[in-house]
């Protein structure tokens, strides 16, 4: 039912999923019919994405890219922290980065890989003025060089 100006308000629940929803409104009044469609996109106000290689070699140096994205109307100051497992050491870097309003920024985390081979954990978290995101992954560290195999055959 509309008010005196012909305006109506309604509410409905949406899923928590980050997706696009199609909304259809239909109306009828004294002989007139109306229909409108619109899309409602749900987005996270802040998100972080880390691009981690499948594996690294002992002694490697990484520049781990961390992509930061904001849909907030103003700039966000983002503090990024890194918790590294055995065999990994973090180098010097900026601890904070400013993400522009409704924009993106990128930060590179320098990481030195020690000697040895094992699976190790990397946990990266970002705090954007109270909005948070985090990722934890496992990184395989393999020995330097290429795997070698030797085969011989002959007679005794």
Can you characterise this structure?
The structure is a single chain. This protein has 156 residues and is mainly beta. It has strands spanning 20-29, 32-41, 46-50, 55-57, 61-70, 76-84, 88-90, 96-99, 104-113, 118-128, 131-142. 0% of the residues lie in helices and 56% in strands. The strands form three sheets. Strands 4-11-10-6-8 form a five-stranded mixed sheet, with no helix packed on it. The chain has a four-stranded antiparallel sheet with strand order 3-5-9-7, with no helix packed on it. Strands 1-2 form a two-stranded antiparallel ribbon. It is elongated, with a radius of gyration of 26 Å.
CA(first)-CA(last) distance: 98 Å
Backbone structural class: mainly beta
The largest sheet is: 5 strands, mixed
As a whole number of angstroms, the C-alpha radius of gyration is: 26 Å
Average of per-residue pLDDT values = 90
Strand residue percentage: over 45%
Number of strands: 11
Side by side, the strands of the main sheet go 4-11-10-6-8
Overall helicity: under 10%
> How many DSSP helices?
0
> What order do the SSEs take from the amino end to the carboxyl end, as H and E?
EEEEEEEEEEE
Morphology: elongated
- Quaternary structure annotation: single chain
Poorly predicted runs of 5 or more residues = none
Care to give the gist of this entry?
With 156 residues, the protein is mostly beta strands. It has strands at residues 20-29, 32-41, 46-50, 55-57, 61-70, 76-84, 88-90, 96-99, 104-113, 118-128, 131-142.
